[in-house]
Amino acid sequence: MQYHLAQLNIARMKGEIDSPVMASFVARLDEINALAEFSPGFVWRLKTEAGDATSIQLYEDDRIIVNFSVWEDLGSLREFVYRTMHGAVMRQRRDWFERMEDFYYVLWWVPAGSIPSLEAAKERLEYLRVHRETAYAFTFADPKPSPEISIDIDLSGVRDGCPA
């Protein structure tokens, strides 16, 4: 079975989405979202008919926004996050978002062709916050291999029994 990488990240805005403090972030959304969709390895992202996810509320706090997507592999997502215009924009995140004390993003493997629910994504983030990094929920700092990756060892020519 093949797997893809799902990611959820959340951020708490310094103001309402239509406030002046968020204006320069909102002005870049279409550009960054289009960049994601045309990036190698991109599979899917959560969005409304408006084309973004800023109006989707996952938490009671309406200033917490979500970004939720699926990618073919870790390398593709890492490339988009850190080595494209997305990375340059996110270096300004303190202008728009409050610092979060706990994990604010999570990665996990999903069967290729499946899209996890937003509630399932939230559960992965909560799991990561409680249990730290595991194969079930992890971050770029401690990535876990796809479940499909296995090590093939050629044992032909190895005799049975103890070699001593």
Question: Could you characterize what this model shows?
Answer:
The chain is of the alpha+beta class. The protein has a domain at 9-101: Alpha-Beta Plaits (2-Layer Sandwich). Helix content is 30%, strand content 18%. It has 5 helices and 4 strands, in the order βαββαααβα. It has helices spanning 23-37, 74-83, 85-90, 93-96, 118-131, and strands at residues 3-12, 42-45, 64-71, 105-111. A 4-stranded antiparallel sheet has the order 2-3-1-4, with helices on both faces. The longest helix is centred in the first third of the chain and has 15 residues, at 23-37. It is globular, with a radius of gyration of 19 Å. The chain starts with a strand and ends in a 33-residue tail after the last helix. The relative contact order is 0.21.
